[in-house]
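Q: Convert this sequence to structure tokens.
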Amino acid sequence: MKKYFSLFLLSSFLLFPGCRQKEININYKSNPEPLLHNAYIKLPLGTVKPAGWLKSQLENQAAGLTGNLDDFWPDLVNSSWRGGNGEAWERGPYFLDGLVPLAYLLNDEHLISKVKTWIEPILASSSDTGWYGPAKNKDRWPLAVANKVLMQYYEATGDKRAINVLIKYFRYLHDSQPDWPDKEWRGVRAMENAVTGYWLYRQTGEPWILETISSIQKNSSDWTTYYEKFPWDSSAVADKKIPLNWGPDGLTAHVVNNAMAIKYPGLWYQQSNDERFKKAVFSGIEKYDLNHGQPGGRFSGDEHLAGTSPSHGTELCSVVEYMFSLEELYEIFGNNTLADRLELLAYNSLPGTTTPDLWAHQYDQQANQVLVTAAKRDWTTNGDYSNIYGLMPNFGCCLANMHQGWPKFIESMWMATNDNGLALVAYGPSIVKARVGNGKEVTISEETNYPFNGSVKLTINTEKAVRFPIDLRIPGWADSVIIRFKDRIIKGKNISTYKIKERWKDGDQIFIELPMQLRIENRYNNSLALLRGPVYFSLRIDKEYKSVKINYDNFSYKGSVDWEINPKSAWNYGLLINKSNIMQGIKVTENPVSKYPFSDKGDMIWSADSGKYFTWTQDAPVIIRARGMKIPEWTLKNNSADVPPLSPVKPQGDVEIITLVPYGCARLRITEFPVMDIVLMEDIMRPGK
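A:
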């Protein structure tokens, strides 16, 4: 007989939000004094591996741009970071910041050998002063990225040369005069060095490392005051006061700087123990949402902050950097709203700005994206090619930097707890092999098609029975959850995290059901977005891909291509939806998840076997059928969908069945829908009218 436990009797299983454990993990290095104890501990690279569709996604990345880019893009082929005489600034480190974790997560020998052709020259470049990298680079900014590369490489390989280079470089920073001007990237992004700095302190305990970070914090851009006063609000957007320049004020409005900087007060909070810095993080996120929020968890910036209109874009660099910031912040604070947002970005904004085979990317993505061409648009400062899916449709920074998104997300899906257990941070098919309890190694396999459905199975493998806790994050959108393990069934509502502390034996399983009810989100001009779990849904628009030549050479290497995409069906639909009964007139269908998880029929996919592109014919993993109605007056404006007309919209014409697919599966899309006036609609349709 299975036992059912009341929620109120589960105190031994619950971890309430905000609770700080006082235990010290004996298996993984947490913050030593005088740093604050963090909520969780990031696991070393390679501890968490992808499985299921996530492994397919990483394999697609390896077969696409990430695994091939340094074979044909001159900035990487001739990079000074790998011993060439070419580009010596940020592009080599950016690329490695994704290539290194990808190679070791897949245990891909070809990619690992590539990594070494980069790492060996970098390690050899370390000088007696502590400076390293290409001799012609005199700027500290690219070394802040290279530091993270060496940190990950050390975790994956244990190569002590990497940590020695880092120690020497941080000693160089300690002994040198501060050089962090707020008019330069190295000053605006100076606290990026703290990511590696705090990690290095955890490895060595050297107090001078904290002195180095303190100097950087005090002598670089003041992002904490920025978030407290936040100058670039909606009124600044309306009055066109956001500075579109590359001076000190314009750099604070640059979208990627903002995505990086949101973690800086949180990083410093570990050392300052001042609640001001914690508050600045969450205040900053709230202000981004209020003034520049977009579907998919991101904020706008087509190169500078751009407001909430769905016709404005978001730069891909800012998506992957925002993800990394959230991963760092979750380790510090353990606040589940951070992980909720991380999933939104990973399962919407990241795949939505690449092709399914990961051979092409956009510089800017739009929530309402009905035309992918080189036509003139209302970007703040980006070029006309910015929403082309291609090799380098604007600046080359995103082409270099995009690769970290998926691998670092997978690294952060599980973390260690302070009480010698494991925390399931972000859901998705994965395998974690880690030390728990008093040092015993266990493996937990997570089988799921999440985020496309809400069923999760965890299987624990261990040589001997071992007692350890497992923290299960319950997403904020899930108003209920069912958890089954051993002979227990737990039904909970409005709970943030379950802590299950048991004596686990080989083969034990935990089953989690997260009911994925449809919900709506209010958007621009009273429009709405439709969500299911962490996934936004967009109108499926029939599309035509066209290979084009634009203002640079895409080299035609394997799958490297530039795509224009034009609509072949109407896009100007409003939704007929009953907000008090969302499922009325709606049907949800789940389909098998393919090798290309974020594909939909009509996409172009590169075949390495044939050396050609072919048209994908399978449906997206989830399809929603809904009722819609065309709005004739809703048209293009400056080659983008005009802002949605103010809802509710007077109905006219015929009701049609429209198809919605996950945002990440839609290269053309409407995501913020006008809402038809359903009261007036029902009145029109009443018999006798």
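DSSP finds 21 helices and 28 strands in the chain.
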